[in-house]
Design goal:
Oligomer: heterodimer
Number of domains of chain A: 1
Number of strands of chain A: 0
Number of helices of chain A: 2
Structural class of chain B: mainly alpha
Strand order of the largest sheet of chain B: 1-4
Mean pLDDT of chain B: 92
Low-confidence stretches of chain B: none
Radius of gyration of chain A: 62 Å
Shape of chain A: rod-shaped
Largest interface: A-B, 35 and 50 residues
Largest sheet of chain A: none
Helix content of chain B: 55-70%
Number of strands of chain B: 4
Shape of chain B: globular
Distance between the termini of chain B: 53 Å
Order of helices and strands of chain A: HH
Helix content of chain A: over 70%
Structural class of chain A: mainly alpha
Distance between the termini of chain A: 155 Å
Number of helices of chain B: 7
Number of domains of chain B: 1
Amino acid sequence: MPQLDPAVFLPQIFWLFILFGVVYLFIAHSAAPKITEVLERRQDRIASDLQEAEKLQAQAEDARAAYEKALDEARAKATLTVAAKREAIKADVEAEYNKLSASLNKDAAAAEAKIAAAKDKALDEVRIMAADVCKDIILSVSGLELDQKVISASVDSKFNVMKETANG
Amino acid sequence: MASPLAQFEITTLIPLHVGEYNISFTNSAFFMALSVMAVMVFMVAGMRKGAMVPGRWQLCVEMCYGFVANMLHEAAGRDARKYFPFVFSLFMFILFANLIGMFPYFGFTFTSHIAVTFAMASFVFVGVTLIGLYKHGFKFFTLFVPKGAPLALMPLLVVIELVSYLSRPISLSVRLFANMVAGHTMLKVFGGFVVTLGMLGVVPFAFIVALIGLELLVACLQAYVFTILTCMYLNDALHLH
C-alpha cells in the first residue's frame, strides 16, 4: 500500500497545510462574508417587503372602514330625507284635500240653500194659488165671498201641517 | 496490468528539499491545489452577481453555505458560529477533493491517503481540545467523568472515556481514508475484469456504472460525516456534554 510509505507523509502534510490555509483564508475573508451579506440583504428585503405589505394592508383596511362608514352615513341621511319628503308630501296632500273639501262643502251648502229658497218660493206660490182657487170654488158653489184672510189662514195651517210632515 | 493500488502511488512533480526535509510538490499536492482552485472558482463565479434572486449557480453556493451553517448550528449551537469559516472550508475542501478524485483515469484522491486525513483529523482534534481548555480551563477534564455513574466504577469509566476521546482523530481519519481507498480499489478491480473478460466484460462494466453512482454518494457522504463529527467534537469542547 503506497499510503503507508513514511516517505510520502511529509510532502503531503506540508502542502495540505499550505493549500488548506489558502482555501481557509479565501473562505474566511472573501467567500463567507460575501454569501452572508447577500443572504442578509435578501432577508432584510423580505422583511421590509413584508412590513410594507402589512402597512398597505392596514391602509386598505382603514379605507374600507372609512368607505363603510360613509356608506352608512349616506344611507341614514337618505332614510331621513325620504321620511321628511314623505311627511311634507303627506301634509301637502292633506292641505289640498281640506281645501278642496271645504270648497266643495261651501258649494254644496250654497246649492242646498238655493234649492231650499226655490222650494219655499214654489210652496208660497202654490199656497197663494191654493187660496185663490179655494175662494173661487167657494164663490161659485155657494155664492159666498169669504174674507181672503180667513182662507189664507186655513190654507196656511194645512200647509204647515203638510210641510211638517214632509220635513219630519 | 497495474495493481489496483497503483492509483494511490505518489509521484513527485517538482522536487523540493529544505535541509533534510522533503517537501516536494507531488501529484497529491497538485490535486489539493486543484480542489482549492475548484472551490474558489465555484464560489467566486457563483457569487459574482450576488443577486437578490439567485441563479442556479448562486443557489448551489448558497445551499452549500446553508447546509454547513445549519449543520454547525444544530450540532454545536450558536456560539460555534465563529468557527464556521473553518468548518465550511473543511467541508468544501474534502467534498471537492472526493469529487475530483472520481474522474476516471485522470483523478487522484488525496483523501485516500492516511497521512492527509490523519493530519486533518489531528488538526481538528488538537484545535477542539485547545478550544475546550481555553474556554473551560481545568473544568474541561470533567468531559471524561460521566455524570451519575457509581463512584466505584469511576476509575474504569474515566479510562474508557479518555481512550475513546484520544481515539477520535484515529476514527475520524481512518473512516474517510478507508472509504476512499475501498471504493477506488473496488472500481479498479472491476475495471480490470472488464478488460480481461472480453465480451463478458459488460457485466462488470454495468457493475462499475452502479458503483460509480454509489461512490459519488460516498464522496459527498464522507465529506458530510467528517464535517458533522468536527461539529460534534466542537460542541463537546464548547458545552462539555
